[in-house]
Amino acid sequence: MSELGERLGLSSHVSPLGYKVAKLMKRYPLPGCESIEEWLMAVAFFRGFRIVRLPRQFNERELIPSLDDLSNEELAVALCQSERRDEPQMLRLPAQMISRKVIDVRKLILVARRERATRILAELARQAVMVEPDHELWKKIHKQLDEEPALPQPVVHWSRIAEPVMKNGRFNAEKWVLVS
């Protein structure tokens, strides 16, 4: 499978966060997680971010890194790196983390700049503010990363980071809200 950066025309770089995640993966192995992407998604799952269904069952008592070892901001950025596999489904997890407001925006953007993940994060923000223009965190991210050039194509369609609110149980959505 190709990298996200390949599709978007972004280059990969030597990532300090990538080294950190690889070390944590060895210290906290999760059965059946053979790739960094699988491991990152499983860590997010164990932290309660379950918008993405994992391909395998895990023991609920698996040991994962603490927030001191790997913050939610670092986890979100690690999932947004151009070096990751081109699986837009994965990008739903950082979107859910931000929408749920368990992220410090200042720290997130600092890590994203260091890891060269700002263009992907900026594109997620563009999609999110289309759904909820007044979402406090997404608005801040969008404003702070406004100078990032748009990508040649969206990393994920806005409907993948939102859910419909039905009116009177009918099929047509009354409105859409970000998944949190």
Explain the layout of strands and helices.
Blueprint: H1 4-8, H2 16-27, H3 36-46, H4 72-80, H5 92-99, H6 105-114, H7 118-131, H8 136-144, E1 162-166, E2 173-178
Antiparallel strand pairs: 1-2
Helix pairs in contact: 3-4, 4-5, 4-6, 7-8
Provide the β-strand percentage band: 5-15%
Structural class designation? mainly alpha
Q: Which overall shape is indicated by the principal axes computed on the Cα atoms?
A: globular
- Record the strand order, biggest sheet: 1-2
State the share of residues found in helices, binned by percent.
40-55%
Largest sheet: 2 strands, antiparallel
Low-confidence sequence ranges: none
Gyration radius, in Å: 16 Å
Tally of helical segments = 8
**Count of domain modules:** 1
**What is the number of beta strands?**
2
Order of helices and strands: HHHHHHHHEE
Mean pLDDT: 85
Give the end-to-end Cα distance, rounded to a whole number of Å.
Answer: 29 Å
